[in-house]
Specification:
The chain contains six helices and no strands. The chain has about 170 residues and is an all-alpha fold.
Length: about 170
Amino acid sequence: MTTNQLMFAIFSAVIIIFSILTVTSRRILRAATFLLFVLVATGGMYFLLRFNFLAAIQLALYAGGIVVLIIFSILLTSHIADKLEAPGWKKVVPALVAVAFGAVITIATILQYQFPQEVMSGSERTDIHVIAKSLISTEKFGYALPFEVISILLLAAMVGAIILAKKRKD
């Protein structure tokens, strides 16, 4: 087993285990912490695949920013010691059916897809300067404006959720 295969197995195991712990944890702060481990391991997968830019975005934006925002919201709006109620069998059975259905579709799609064996040459790669310019551009194929609109929308949703959660306690 090569080092890459070993790291892939470790990252895969961490993602699977902590994903299950995220959705089955009855303590919301622990679920957010487990989500952080999933996002960091996903960033590790990107580094393993040599998608360094995506890995940096994954770690900085999702693991760094979004999880901190989620934890901040949890600390503002809920009691940390409270446990969520255990789901009844009426919720568990449909969830297991949906998981099995999704797994079957995913596995069937992966097995049917013909993965290309081509390797890109150095001339076909996208230059990092092109990526950076498209990220900060407000032109036709730029991402600055959609990013700002989505960030304002997320901020408004977070403030609204905090206000609603505070009103329910009072």
